[in-house]
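Example protein as discussed:

>
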Amino acid sequence: MYLLWRYTHTPIWHIAVCVLFGYFLAESSIAPNIARLLTTAAHYLSGLDL
């Protein structure tokens, strides 16, 4: 978040809202589904021959 604030001059309150949203999303019941989706996407992308 520091780099985002430092180099793009994002307002501090935008960063705070994103951090709080991420925290609440991680604590929600949908968090395991998001983790599974990201893991599947990472496995798919790592298997591509570019």
User: Anything to note?
Assistant: The mean pLDDT is 89. The CA atoms of residues 42 and 48 lie 10 Å apart. Helices lie at 2-8, 12-26, 31-46.
